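Example S7 (structure tokens).
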């Protein structure tokens, strides 16, 4: 078990008030211990689950040499006679699921359909459109250079060889994998249990959907955004509602969240005005690694661990991310910091999100010394090059900028102002959000 000190020490070489994003990603990843419990599920329930163990193929797929074409199967030796055309006697027929049982001699062939077993004595299939059939249908003729020996057959084990790893542990099961497992005759697989993530919002100003909005109040949108982002990752999301800005309520919520979840996400209560209070509270029954990132939006972001007991080390621990309250900052910190940790804890092999280059169609103001994730609208020009325009408002409270955008414009820690036409990196929302 890691101690309180070990937890806080991981940031010792950095300024804990302005940790670079790359350092925060490295530190949080370090604490991402995968869940170990395994569940056995039927194939259809395995979609989007994380494979717990390698799948070794119990059979060859295909299990027998079969034809890739509708045509005629024969022994390729017939092509080597030196004659310009080849004539073969048709001695039978093989369909998918209905093999031809006899032996096929040197000057003979068998009519085959796609997927039919290639009969004994044959190793080559000539497609039917390259063949002339004699009037009595008893023999065929085709040019000797129409096919090469060995052509148009699928070898046994060509798709999946028996005894080889067909799918590796840590893989998120997708549509092709379900089909692949079925092709191996596998009807159930072992997957990791889903990660449990509890989340709640904090703030006396927050109202839930359905409640009246009194002056100064705002509807709680973060719980819906978080619910959706968690759903996309196929984790078990536990919505603990809105917690008022009261130490006792917050402590009770955090401790009970630690009791039932692997990870606790909160939003709000970590910005400058409220941070000290939350930090002090957390230190009584948790560990705090960092509080503030050199990142925009998302400067206030707390990371640590909470325990279900009364002191650090007592009860059950859960990783804790105190996300900012501002709705855009919630999404940015989730995708840039939290997502990877949740995937790793779910048992998924790490997958950094792809960045692509785009020309910025507007100048962008950027201060060196922090990483910025601006919202952008990207499209591909006629020549295939990506171009991007920042959305109008980049305020971290303007959630409509996330709905309007289709990418993050990722401006690196060291980067300064960007001129019109200059190259920037973008991260597309497609497949992510
Ligand atoms: P805080 O980090 O608590 O200081 O909140 C920063 C800003 O985000 C404030 O304007 C809050 O009203 C707003 N905010 C906090 N939580 C939420 C929420 N769950 N939904 C919508 N806005 C929020
Ligand atoms: Mg607040």
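Recovered sequence:
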């Amino acid at each position: 078990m890691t101690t309180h000190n070990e937890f806080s020490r991981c940031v010792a070489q950095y300024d804990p008030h302005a940790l670079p994003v790359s350092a925060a990603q490295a530190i949080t990843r370090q604490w991402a211990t995968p869940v170990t419990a395994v569940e056995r599920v039927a194939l259809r329930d395995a979609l989007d689950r994380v494979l717990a163990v390698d799948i070794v193929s119990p059979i060859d797929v295909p299990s027998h040499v079969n034809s890739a074409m509708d045509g005629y199967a024969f022994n390729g030796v017939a092509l080597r006679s030196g004659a310009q055309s080849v004539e073969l006697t048709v001695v039978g027929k093989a369909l998918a699921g209905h093999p031809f049982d006899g032996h096929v001699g040197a000057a003979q062939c068998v009519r085959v359909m796609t997927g039919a077993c290639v009969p004994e004595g044959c190793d080559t299939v000539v497609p039917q459109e390259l063949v002339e059939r004699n009037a009595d249908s008893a023999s065929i003729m085709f040019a000797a250079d129409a096919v090469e020996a060995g052509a148009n057959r699928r070898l046994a084990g060509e798709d999946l060889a028996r005894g080889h790893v067909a799918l590796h542990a840590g893989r998120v099961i997708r549509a092709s994998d379900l089909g692949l497992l079925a092709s191996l005759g596998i009807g159930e697989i072992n997957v990791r249990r889903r990660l449990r993530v509890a989340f709640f919002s904090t703030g006396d100003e927050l109202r839930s959907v359905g409640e009246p909005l009194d002056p100064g109040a705002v509807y709680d949108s973060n719980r819906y955004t978080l619910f959706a982002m968690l759903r996309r990752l196929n984790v078990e999301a536990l919505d603990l509602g809105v917690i008022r800005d009261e130490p006792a309520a917050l402590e009770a919520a955090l401790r009970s969240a630690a009791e039932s979840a692997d990870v606790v996400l909160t939003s709000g209560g970590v910005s400058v005005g409220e941070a000290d209070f939350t930090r002090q509270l957390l230190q009584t029954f948790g560990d705090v690694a960092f509080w503030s990132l050199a990142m925009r939006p998302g400067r206030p972001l707390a990371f640590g661990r909470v325990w279900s007991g009364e002191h650090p080390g007592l009860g059950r621990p859960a990783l804790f991310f105190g996300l900012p309250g501002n709705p855009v900052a919630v999404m940015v910190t989730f995708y840039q910091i939290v997502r990877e940790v949740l995937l790793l804890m779910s048992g998924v092999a790490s997958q950094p999100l792809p960045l692509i280059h785009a020309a910025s169609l507007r100048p962008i103001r950027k201060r060196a010394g922090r990483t910025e994730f601006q919202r952008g609208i990207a499209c591909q020009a006629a020549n295939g090059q990506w171009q991007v325009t920042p959305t109008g408002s980049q305020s971290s409270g303007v959630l409509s900028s996330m709905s309007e955008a289709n990418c993050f414009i990722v401006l690196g820690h060291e980067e300064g102002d960007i001129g019109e036409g200059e190259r920037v990196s973008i991260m597309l929302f497609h497949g992510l959000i």
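Notes on this example. The pocket of adenosine monophosphate (ligand 1) is lined by residues 201, 203, 205-206, 218, 220-222, 267-271, 274, 324-327 (CB under 6 Å).
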